[in-house]
Specification:
- Helix 2 runs parallel beside helix 3, helix 2 crosses helix 11 and helix 10 packs across helix 11.
- The longest helix is centred in the C-terminal third of the chain and has 19 residues.
- Helices cover about 45% and strands about 15% of the residues.
- It has a single domain, classed as TIM Barrel (Alpha-Beta Barrel), CATH 3.20.20.
- By secondary structure, it is an alpha/beta fold.
- The structure holds pyridoxine-5'-phosphate.
- The site of pyridoxine-5'-phosphate (PXP) has 19 residues, from strand 8 and helix 10.
């Protein structure tokens, strides 16, 4: 079994740089190293508050990334303009709240339908593949198909935060069920958020999930073992199907 593709999110390399307003470490260099180590895709989140990735990082990555570039962003007209100019291979629309530490929940495609339809159309017109980051909820999967997205990325945060045992099993089942629903509706299925070396295994086992986007745990491990080894180890887990 080949296992799901690995998208490496390098946002937190930029977090370290921004913490000091320094010029290093460079997330663009990190993206190149991640690709050399086996990443199938580079993922970055250009937040409206620019707390980590900056516009110039995104522009440089568009020139240097040789696999695929996946841009996570809010579904606002301003961000759509940036995506149209930079032309990533894929855009993942995510909800954004300024005070949050990280993307806390999935996009509410049911309630935010009008704004999301506009963004999806504008991006698809440019030939950009569009993914929606949603909670593992059937109504959100169906709404994603209805607004014209080609991909869903299922938010694994609740599975990752659940206590081992029944709660975790239930959250994993919700992820698997949403993945099956997505495939049945003709959507490509990705997943991510909060995944690390110990909890990724059961998610890898879900056959409908074709791609995982993983950031924090890889960058954190890179502090101790280097980025190439951290990426290689995660890639091996995806290929082997768990720890
Ligand atoms: N996928 C999406 C849509 C995200 O917003 C994030 C966090 O930016 C990730 C994946 C990666 O999450 P983590 O850093 O917890 O691995």
């Amino acid at each position: 079994m080949a296992g799901p593709r690995l998208g490496v999110n390098v946002d937190h390399v930029a977090t370290l740089r921004q913490a000091r307003g320094a010029s290093y470490p460079d997330p663009v260099a990190a993206a190149t190293l991640a690709e050399l180590a086996g990443a199938d895709q580079i993922t970055v989140h250009l937040r409206e508050d620019r707390r980590h990735i900056q516009d110039r990082d995104l522009e440089a990555m568009r020139r240097t990334v040789s696999t695929r570039l996946n841009l996570e962003m809010a579904a606002t007209p301003g961000m759509v303009e940036i995506a149209r100019a930079v032309r990533p291979d894929e855009v993942t629309l995510v909800p954004e709240r300024r005070a949050e530490l990280t993307t806390e929940g999935g996009l509410d495609v049911v309630r935010g339908r009008e704004e999301i339809v506009r963004a999806v159309r504008a991006l698809r017109d440019e030939g950009i593949l569009v993914s929606l980051f949603i909670d593992p909820d059937r109504s959100q999967v169906e709404a994603s198909r209805d607004v014209g997205a080609q991909v869903i990325e299922i938010h694994t945060g609740r599975y990752c935060e659940a206590r081992p045992g029944g709660e975790q099993v239930r959250e994993l089942a919700r992820v698997a069920e949403a993945a099956r629903a997505g495939t049945r509706l003709g959507l490509q299925v990705a997943a991510g958020h909060g995944l690390h070396y110990q909890n990724v295994g059961p998610v890898v086992e879900i056959p409908e999930i074709e791609e995982l986007n993983i950031g924090h745990s890889i960058v954190a491990r890179a502090v101790f073992v280097g980025l190439e080894r951290a990426v290689r180890e995660m890639k091996e887990l995806l290929e082997r199907g768990g720890p």
